[in-house]
Amino acid sequence: MSPFRFSLVKAILGLIKPARGNIKLSLNSSEIGYLPQGSQLDESFPITVKEVIASGMEHGLKIRSRTSKSREQKIESALETVGLKALHSRPIGELSGGELQRTMLARAIISSPRLLVLDEPDTHVDNQFETELYSLLKELNRTITILLVSHDIGTISPYIKTIACVNRDLHYHASNEITEEQLKVYNCPIEIIAHGPVPHRVFKEHIHK
Question: What is the C-alpha separation between 137 and 162, in angstroms, rounded?
């Protein structure tokens, strides 16, 4: 992750203060779910899928009065949402990359966040899981605001609503259309996958400044 993007995500999460200006969110830290790039877990540690997911309830969260769900019910619901009920007792060291990412996603959503921040969630996963992941995120987006960080704007464009390009500056675009203006922000060749009757790829020329 570029230092600019990394700093922006940390500022949104409230981990650092902006050098200038302010970031205003109408929610507190317990209402933000975060899925970092990579699991950041010691996979040799003897902990199960269920225990990892349950740990997402410990950070600044007391079961909210607005829901009658018990702790166990919330864990079961999270497991079912990401399709891991059958693996709830499996040690994390025995999971595939996609299964581990599902586990971490369940951990991020178990507190019923209003905002879910995802940092390149498709890193180190196979193509099948990538497709399933974006379909799952699309469903979650019905009730949760999602901020997804990705280099692969061509692949994610069918699933997103707006785009913010970060390269020293932040350029916000109120649609999911990939424009010439957005490509110029990067000053670097970008592989675009065009969806349609005949899928094809477009490579922009490399511009040096």
Answer: 15
Whether the CA torsion 133, 36, 117, 57 is positive or negative: it is positive
pLDDT tier for residue 170 given thresholds of 50, 70 and 90: confident
Closest CA to 34 of 68, 17, 16, 59: 59
Taking CA 96 as the corner, what is the angle to CA 91 and CA 97, rounded to the nearest 5 degrees? 115
pLDDT at 198 over 50: no
- Model pLDDT for residues 128-165, shown as the tens digit of each residue: 778 888 888 989 999 999 999 887 776 777 788 888 87
User: Looking at 29-70, which runs of residues are DSSP E strands?
Assistant: 32-35
Helices (H), 66-150: 71-82, 97-109, 127-140
Tokens of 96: 């595939």
Q: What is the pLDDT of residue 10?
A: 85
Whether the CB-CB separation of 149 and 4 falls below 8 Å is answered with no
97-109 and 127-140 helices cross at what angle (nearest 10)? 10
Q: Which residues of 126-138 are buried (b: 16+ CB within 10 A; e: fewer)?
A: eeebbebbbebbe
